[in-house]
Write a structure and sequence with these properties.
rod-shaped; mainly alpha; 57% helix
Amino acid sequence: MFYTPIPSDEKRAAKSLIDVGFDRLGEAAGGGLIRLALMAGPADPTIGLLWGAILCSLAAIGAASRLSRDYVKTLERGLRRRAVELDAEHITDRTTRTTFFRLAPLTGGRTRLDRTVTAGMDGAPGTPVAPPGSGLGPSPGPTPTPGPAAAPYPPRAAGSRRDRVAVAPDAETLKIIALRSRNLDEVRRLLGPDERLTASLVPHVVPLLAWDPLASDAITALRQVAETHVGQLVDALVDPTQDFTIRRRLPKVFSTCLSQRAVDGLLLGLDDKRFEVRFQCARSLAAIHDKNPAVRIDEARVFEIVQAETKVGRPVWESQRLLHQLDDRDDGLFVDEFVKDRAGRSLAHVFTLLSLVLPTEPLRIAFRGLQTDDPGLRGTALEYLEGVLPARIRNGLWPFLDDARPRATPARAREDILADLLRSNQSIAFNLEELKRRGAGTT
């Protein structure tokens, strides 16, 4: 520690002299004093040796009392002359730390803080200690007014280690600290409409999706910048080590996007092992496709995903649901809440996927028609689906549609079936409304 205030070019020469030369000189001087005491003293030299030890100890105390003051003066002189290289993260003793931060504003360093200084000056080890005037913690001492000794020095080359003087964090760093603070009011303020997230803040907002009181605020804030930072969001979505709660809520952020990059990222999310993640990715894809039909969605890829969804057994098909009310909240996509509840989440998910590659409006009418209790309306919906779905998709999906029609039905032209389906839209709406009223009356 005592070599800290000595410039590097002087330290190398002084260290060997002090560590070796003065150490040996002290041993020789001590041995000489003992020998003199034995030669000059009485038969029992113990008393003389004790007094000699006491006098030497007093002299050492006197020298040590000046050591701290001289150390600080030498350190200040080195810092002012910029002859001493210090890094805040490597300083462990209180005296050096106090002097370093007290002189930081006077040494012409860059405003950079590599990490929060810890290992307590004013508290227990690990307590954060901020530079004077930062407002983040107790100040180690008053900041002196620059005097003649603080005259400006010639600028050094950019990137020099001597320019790395720790000062107060900038506004971006303070926002990161606040976002990770778990202070509900402060975090909600940073997620509000008056703040816009930057690239460095997005990774600290994504984890807030797992915090139920702030999940909606985090989704809203991320939606405002989703198109700009879509790459970061896709990385979090497809990361299998990411918290499941985050991955099942993150797709909702993409629903405001319009770009092909967002579509490609959500298509990757459709391969997730968890149904909730796949369900939300499909809903956001439908939202993007509805706003920007020009985005490219590979039809063969979607049919492969639908086929995989229909390969599960009926127990799994009927048990798949969303885990949280926030995740299940309807965003006005494809079907309303009542129809989705009657159909089940698995069938709603499959029809959402099909809407990405098939005409959306007829498919929506057919899906709603399947949830009626009118055999004629259900038959028209099934007839339409029978004509537009590829054989492999139809074969996988049909067991879940409860087709009770007579088997011997004459084939009709697809245009006639579509016309009947579109004409039945109003009847389907009336039937579903009647079913909804009946359900409300029985509860």
